[in-house]
Amino acid sequence: MPVPPPPAPPPPPTFALANTEKPTLNKTEQAGRNALLSDISKGKKLKKTVTNDRSAPILDKPKGAGAGGGGGGFGGGGGFGGGGGGGGGGSFGGGGPPGL
């Protein structure tokens, strides 16, 4: 059975209903607005905040004393392509002499 086509997009908005009149402010509202704008233009000092950035991925700590110095990834000592022991932890191995 064929899948039905997606629904048609909604009609575009009509701007004829938008409020285009300039807002009128009384004296106290205007004074408060002017005070706020003057504080902003003077560079008002902001309150210090503390940010707890948790956007970095959580990595598990390596278990035990891992040989090869690789942290996580694919393979510990020689990777997938062999290459013997030694350095190159986390690499895919292959290509160089073993132990380098």
Q: What is the strand and helix layout of this fold?
A:
Elements: H1 27-42
Describe the structure.
The protein has 100 residues and is an all-alpha fold. The chain has 1 helix and no strands. The radius of gyration is 32 Å and the shape is flat. The protein starts with 26 loop residues before the first helix and ends in a 58-residue tail after the last helix. The mean pLDDT is 72. Residues 25-100 are annotated as: Disordered. Residues 65-100 have a biased composition (Gly residues). GO terms for molecular function: actin binding.
Output the keywords.
100 residues, mainly alpha, flat, actin binding
Question: What is the string of helix and strand elements?
Answer: H
**Average pLDDT taken over every residue:** 72
Helical fraction equals 10-25%
What's the gyration radius in Å? Answer: 32 Å
- What sort of overall outline do the alpha carbons produce when their principal axes are compared? flat
Low-confidence stretches: none
By oligomeric state, this entry counts as single chain
**How far from one another are the termini?**
60 Å
Secondary structure category: mainly alpha
Characterize the biggest β-sheet: none
Number of helices: 1
Number of strands: 0
Strand content: under 5%
Give the gist of this structure:
This protein is 16% helix and 0% strand. By secondary structure, the chain is an all-alpha fold.
